[in-house]
Amino acid sequence: VNTSSLSPTATSLFADFVASGKRLTDRMDGILKKLFGEGSERYVMWKKSAADLFDVIFNEDGTATDISASQFPIEIVGDPKVEFNEEFGQNVFLSEANGTTPVSYLRVHYADNQAFKDALVDGFTMETTFAVTSQKQPGDITPFRATESGGFGFDIVPSGQVKFEVHTDIDGSKGYRYATSGVYIKTQTFYHFVGVYKDGKVHCYVNGINAATGDAAGEFNFPAVESQWIGIGADCGDTNGANFAIVNARLYNEPMT
User: For residue 65, how far is the Cα from the chain centroid?
Assistant: First the structure.
């Protein structure tokens, strides 16, 4: 970024922002090194990759910033809270819901970003670390999802099991293709989930382990234009909300398998 045209104050603020992003990356590096092991394949792949499509940090005032190359504006819905989490050494986002109706959450609109959509079609990686902070309500919920008759994301079904899904079209047969993890969410427990879409397959990793692989042949489908946004703490149909503590939400152009 060329800062030569910025005022001294703006230049200083930008430098602070970059430094803050680096500190968060360094903290996550330590967390993943401990979780996977420094010599593990998963840690090595993470070190080689960057969340170039989307990478959110949560600010103390309840706002959020995309520090990826996409630099998406992030829309705030409701009155979300952010709190510092000692375990992760960073701010976490606290979404809220009434039952499964989202009350406070974030939207990331991508309909006008063709480069972003082109990158997803060829395969991608989706990552989030989260906890459900109160008793799960009947019905599907999601910490990070973008599905409305098309799209992609993580889904926690009524039983509490998590799956990663994408929507594809196989010779006119449209539908969601799943990798169902076999992991059942417990409240007040943090989980690290990674979903990968690559070469007609979907993979769901839980805490570094490949928990499930499913078939996802066909052409990738997006939702209708008005539903082309990503929800953090909700889905893009303004549904599937819950009370979450969300540590991160990232999208990588590179399918990391």
Answer: 13
